[in-house]
Amino acid sequence: MRGRTRERVRTVPSSPGPRVPGALAQLALVLRTPARAAQPLFAQAPQAWQRMLPFAVVGVFVVTLLPVTITVLANDYGLGGGWAGALGVAQTVPLLLAVTRPVHAWAVILLADTIGAVLLIHAERVSAHAWPWTPMVIVGYLLLMACLGLRESIRTLVGVWLATGAVGTVLGFFQPAGSMNTAALLFVLGGVMLALTGALRGLGDAQQRIAEQESISEAERARRTLLEERARIARELHDVVAHHMSVITVQADSAPYRLPGMPEPVREEFAAIAAAARESLGEMRRLLTVLRGDGTERAEGERAPQPGIGRIQQLVEATVRAGQPVELSLAAGASEAAPPAVDLSAYRIVQEALANVVRHAPGAAARVSVTVDADEVLVLVVNGPAPEPVVALESSGTGHGLVGMRERVRLTRGTLDTGPLPGGGFRVAARLPLNTPDEEPS
Q1: pLDDT tens digits, 346-362
Q2: Which of 134, 151, 315, 378 is the 20 to 30 Å CA partner of 22?
Q3: Strand partners of residue 419
Q4: pLDDT tier at 124 (50, 70, 90 boundaries)?
Q5: What are the helix (H) ranges across 322-428?
Q6: Phi, psi of 349 (to 5 degrees)
Q7: How far apart are CA 80 and CA 97, in angstroms?
Q8: Burial (Cβ within 10 Å: 0-12, 13-18, ≥19) of residue 353
Q9: Residue 7: which of 380, 390, 356, 325 has the closest Cα?
Q10: Residue 389 CB contacts under 8 Å (≥ 6 apart), including other chains
Q11: How far apart are CA 178 and CA 158, in angstroms?
Q12: Measured between alpha carbons, how far is 151 from 307 in angstroms, rounded to an integer?
């Protein structure tokens, strides 16, 4: 029944409005999904092109920055061709490592950028040019900061940012005359990039923790629902068992009066049976107090006799009066043939099934059938689709209906079959054995 609720919610057409394109929405989700240790960026992405995207982006930057760096160092700064080539490779190629191990890439690139700044102090045309960080260094460093922000912890990001600022400050004492100091520029831009990407990763971490907590809460809710249903069933069966124990007590106590001339050992045996029955009733009452859990007295509704198959007719009539069309087929003598546990379970299964029909498919025609043979009682509740697509009247249910049905069927060692019908609607079929074995089958 609950599964059908979600299905009907999906059939309701949503209002038109602007939507983010599918690819962009997936990319935004991937950006917020943090990668695990030793995994590349976007390793959790569902599609192959998304997993390859970081490598492609970094590869484009390396292929672009490498020749530009060598050309600018040689032509604009006047650095020797050998040094320009070596610095170009050292400052750009390690960016490829940033996809999988950004901290290691940062250490290598920061060292290479520092060496490059020292070499440029004595370059022929460093005057009127950016120093200690060239424009190509700033672009590559910002890409590195983005990889770090999407991957590392806040503590690591703060350490990287402060180390960058410290190196720039120390190099500032050796600034060549006429050059433009870019240490503060990289420090500010790097901090902004780390803050943005770090916040994006923090959002992904928070969403992941929320999803984990929701999963844990759902499992706990299902467990609590199961325990509540078992306690409720135990409270209801208390009345059934207590009735039989009371009959045993009365018969054992009245036996000496109904059967005069009974030998004394037999009288003592009946007295012992009556005492054991009364003691068992007392233990059951104490157990029932524990199952209630709140120490309160039983409500008036709980004092009423437990319902059975004989009251299904009244249940169906009440449902029809509520505006739900229901047909009933009830086998004659079913109530007398069923033992108390099966009698009560059959009624509750029909009650839960009809309640779910009213709740999740109002207006749908339903059919209730209760048949009995020599071995079992068959309870069948089938409803068709609702006259028109509807939103469930209760969309935040806990699933007590199906859980309760399963527990009642389990109690009687029967079987339960539930599920949607091909043409719409839902089916609940329970087989409840009339002769329940005393022990679990091996």
Answers
A1: 988 998 888 888 888 88
A2: 151
A3: 427
A4: confident
A5: 334-337, 340-360, 400-411
A6: -65, -45
A7: 27
A8: buried
A9: 390
A10: 8, 11, 12
A11: 32
A12: 62
